[in-house]
Amino acid sequence: MSDDSASLRVHVLGPLGAWLEERSVDLGPPRQQAVFASLALSEGRRLPAPDLVRDVWGPHPPLGSQGTLRTYLSHLRTAFRSVSTQQAAVAIDAVNGSYVLHVTTPTGRPEMVSDGWQFEHAGARVEGLCNTRSWDAVLHESSQALAHWQGTPLTRVPGPAAAAVRSRLEEQHLVLREHQLEARIRLEQHHDAIPDLTAIAHTHPDRLRAQLLLLEALNACGRLAEALTLYARTTAKFRGDAAQHQLQSLYTRLLARPRVRATSSLDVPTATASARPAASSGTAPVHLPPAVAYFVDRQLDTERLETALTSPLSRTTVTLVAGMAGMGTSTAALNTAHQLKRHFPGGIYYADLRQTPRPNLTLGELAGRLLRALGHPKPSHPGASLRALHEHLAQREALLLLDNADHADWVVPLLPLAEACRLLVAGRTTLPGWTAERHLLNSLTTQAAHNLLTAIVGAHRIEEDPAATAQLISLCAGLPQALQMVAVTLATRPQWSPAALAGRLKGGTGLLRGLRTEHHSLHAILADSELAVSAEHRRTLRILAGIPQPAFTTQEAAASLKMTVARASRHCEALAAACLLHPLAPHRYGMHPLLRLYAATSEKVQVT
Q1: Pairing with 485, which of 31, 246, 476, 570 sits 20 to 30 Å away (CA)?
Q2: What is the pTM of this model?
Q3: Over 324-386, what HEC string results?
Q4: CATH 3.40.800.20 describes domain 533-601
């Protein structure tokens, strides 16, 4: 970064220093150094004597400061004369009560250069490289500039002018460090970035960018408990709308990120040997949200999904993964789709049917969005979009993932696809009446629930009180969403013990309303799930929740509902199709304990 060809070199990135033709200049005591710094950094401008006095002593200079200034200027002239030559000399000229530093140099050589100027110019170059996302160049340029930093700029030089330069350069130094560390993160050097980011976040807690970069690096390295703790602390500190938006955007990725590496207990399997051959080209378009990091005890489920989607022996082009609210159907479908990128040369496409309220989004509009993702223009007539989508998919060996497909009437029109194109549907409906490979997700085992809590919170917190941890796992009844809420609550509140949280969640509505994500409680999620059925079937659900035993027959349901067995069977089947009941055997059903708790504590119904 330095320019050794200049006649006069001035160093400000650390103790002040000056060299004329490589000969060191004695700049004298601190206040005399302050006089030189103001002249040297004025970039050739004339400085009136009163301005120089204020630069050195501030707005209230002592008596005699003008005379002292003249003495300092005289000493500086003497110091530069002692190192000057016929070819290179420095003079401090007085013109009408103003002073200017003048450098005489050989023809064609720059007069003076300051490492401070070069440092700021490097910062501007790095900023431009960041805007173009040239991360290799950002890392190279920022590292080169930072190598010239020698500590506090203008060390021990007094006065307001030096303080202003010092503040500006220290801010530039922090910005360059943040650019350098962001480049490391973008280049997947997360581990290397964490120590410096931690230091910046500790010494400069008011720098939001450093906090966000540290959150991202911790999360990418699998240190989710630390990331969530930092997230909670940062959210409490930064209350502005822009900061909250950035934090909430990052929060949505904390539990949905591509893993740096999988572990044996959390591994997602690769496609089975019977799968369709992998695509030879690795350039197939993939339009998917990130895979979910902490995905446990679903190896058998994902193996079955992969086989159904890739095996040439599959009996249908439609594969369905279904389960009650919070059971992890979206997670299973997304993680499976990510493992199949190489099997679908026509691409993998994603649509979330819950992102837009159903009354405002027509099937034609949804088809139009998918067409744009496929790289085709949307037809001018809305009614033609669905037909055009089928025509384009018929020409592709592609996978289409429909997420949160909780209503069959949204899925059915998309089903008649060509044999080469596969449809993966995730949601809370079993699509009765349609031929599909169906995979119903069950609750996590106790060991899997323990693994999930350990992965997010950390083993030291989870194992400090085994009894309390077991109680939390029991309260969640194997529901992945509930367990994740427990884990995030503990991770973002390091002062809470598992026993303290278990005490808070005991008892009906305390559990359902006390467990929540950033935006929704478990109660609200379960309430939304029952909207898939009619008001009459919601009434049935509440009555069935009052049956004391965990499983019941259609005859027992009919007795509680006060209706015929045939009619009670139809009601139970409707609830099972919406994953609000799970069939255990012919004419026998069960209800998840948390859904039973929700239904039993909701508004009371009158049985007539």
Answers
A1: 246
A2: 0.61
A3: CCCCCHHHHHHHHHHHCHHHCCCCEEEEECCCCCHHHCCHHHHHHHHHHHCCCCCCCCCCHHH
A4: no
